[in-house]
Design a protein that fits this description.
This protein has 89 residues and is of the alpha+beta class. The chain has one domain.
Length: 89
C-alpha cells in the first residue's frame, strides 16, 4: 500500500542483471552492530551505527528487507557491465 500519493514500485531483477554486477544498497537504521547472512549467496553483511549502508546481492535483499530496521536506498552497479568476467579453470 502506498502513502501520500506515491505509487508502490516494483523491482524486477534477473540473472543477467546479477551477472552484470547489479546490487542493492540497503540502509540500516539500528544502532548496534548486526551481521546478516544472505540466505541465497551465504555472504555475511555487516551493518552498524557507523556503517549504515551496504551493497547487498539482489537475491538476498528481500529477506533482509523483511526486517524493519533495513530499507532499500538505491540500485547500484558494482562493476561495468561490459567488463569480461574471469573464467575459472
Amino acid at each position: 500500500m502506498s502513502c501520500c500519493g506515491q505509487s508502490a514500485g516494483r523491482l524486477v531483477v534477473n540473472q543477467k542483471d546479477i551477472d552484470a554486477g547489479l546490487a542493492l544498497e540497503i540502509e540500516y537504521s539500528g544502532g548496534r552492530t548486526v551481521t546478516v547472512t544472505g540466505p541465497v549467496s551465504g555472504k555475511a553483511y555487516v551493518f552498524s551505527g557507523l556503517q549504515r549502508r551496504g551493497a547487498v546481492d539482489p537475491r538476498d535483499a528481500m529477506s533482509i528487507l523483511r526486517d524493519g530496521r533495513f530499507r532499500l536506498k538505491r540500485v547500484i552497479q558494482l562493476k561495468p557491465a561490459d567488463s569480461p568476467t574471469p573464467e575459472r579453470a
